[in-house]
Automatic annotation (TrEMBL):
PANTHER family: ELONGATOR COMPLEX PROTEIN 5 (PTHR15641)
Position of the signal peptide: none
Protein source organism: Pseudomassariella vexata
Matches recorded under Pfam families: Elong_Iki1 (PF10483)
CDD domains: Elp5
InterPro entries linked to this entry: Elp5, P-loop_NTPase
Protein known as: Elongator complex protein 5
């Protein structure tokens, strides 16, 4: 059982993630979502959109790669081929104002930051900062394993665009495959080499990843690693499992969230041991029985420990002396006895 302080910290991290996804109290003005070819960030973006729709926020979808507007998005801004300044002006023009003059809550989603990071890396920080206001939350997706071709005018001493994004972001979400995480954990438990997928396989001209295998327990889930920077400067990091719900008649339900350590495929062996000791029938996948039968328990109680007589107090301060009886195989040495 986890200590109370650790349990409180994990519960607090889960509440922070829910607050971030629900866009409450400006939890993160700039959220950076890092994905790969093996695991797309689409389920995370879809959950952002669904929650924003529930809170009646205006959703502006900035498309570099998507061909069409998501069903629940309000405005689609086609960004391909536009300069950073022209794109910024078009996005800001869609910010709504209420009758009282106060800006309504807006969610701006950029489906790919790689094109603008490649075409105008020096303007990346100014472009993102100019989009953020107290009522606007910006979520940007960056594909970490897509090669980034920088212009010739880029100074080699300037920080890499991904470094700039990681520095500016107040929250970073890294997504990875749940199936692959389970396979790696099982390999570590067996002291085997962890398997590789995708580009790390080293195969030329082929990617073997999510679609090669899959189980019903992992096909709709992904591992979500959160790193959120608080206003005090303290960073909170935790790993979660996000299980997206299938769409039903054009209506998308909220994704389910849980801590990675609470997932059935990632529970510690100590938790399984506690279940066995408590009388449960589940052995947690162990190769041996951690419990005792009634006969084994009685036999253990009937065992007389070595030197048991020395544990009784016989008076005159002689308690605790060692009593030793020689066997036939012992060789008694008179000289050692005299010493």
């Amino acid at each position: 059982m986890a200590p109370p302080a650790q349990s409180h910290s994990r519960s607090h991290a889960l509440l922070l993630l829910q607050k971030l996804l629900n866009l409450r109290d400006s939890a993160s003005p700039l959220t950076l979502v890092l994905d790969t070819l093996e695991q797309s960030a689409r389920p995370v973006i879809r959950d952002f959109i669904t929650r924003a729709k529930v809170s009646k926020s205006r959703i502006i979808f900035v498309s570099f790669a998507a061909l069409g507007k998501p069903a629940e998005a309000d405005i689609l801004v086609k960004a391909r081929g536009k300069s950073a300044e022209a794109l910024r002006s078009e996005i800001v023009s869609h910010y709504p104002l209420s009758a009282s003059g106060h800006a309504l809550k807006v969610l701006v989603i950029v489906d790919a930051l790689n094109p603008i990071a490649s075409s105008a890396p020096s303007q990346l920080a100014h472009f993102l900062s100019s989009l953020i206001t107290p009522a606007v939350s910006l979520v940007g997706v960056y594909h970490t394993d897509v090669p980034l071709v920088l212009p010739r005018t880029f100074n080699e001493y300037e920080p890499h665009p991904l470094t700039v994004l990681s520095h500016l972001a107040t929250a970073i979400l890294r997504v990875s495959s749940l199936y692959q995480a389970v396979e790696c954990r099982q390999a570590r438990n067996r002291s085997l080499q962890e398997p590789e997928w995708g580009l790390k396989e080293g195969r030329e001209g082929v990617l073997i990843g999510l679609r090669s295998k899959g189980t019903t327990r992992t096909e709709n889930g992904l591992v979500l690693e959160m790193e959120i920077r608080r206003r005090s400067g303290r960073s909170v990091a935790e790993k979660f499992v996000l299980v997206s719900s299938p769409e039903k008649a054009g209506k998308t339900e909220l994704a389910k969230l849980m801590l990675l350590s609470d997932h059935p495929l990632f529970r510690d062996s100590s938790d399984a041991g506690e279940d066995v000791g408590g009388g449960g029938g589940d052995e947690g996948g162990t190769t041996f029985n951690l419990g005792l039968t009634e006969k084994q328990r009685k036999d253990r109680e009937g065992i007389v420990l070595p030197y048991f007589d020395a544990q009784t107090d016989i008076g005159a301060g002689e308690g605790g002396r060692i009593l030793y009886e020689m066997g036939r195989e012992d060789d008694f040495d008179d000289e050692e006895d005299e010493i």
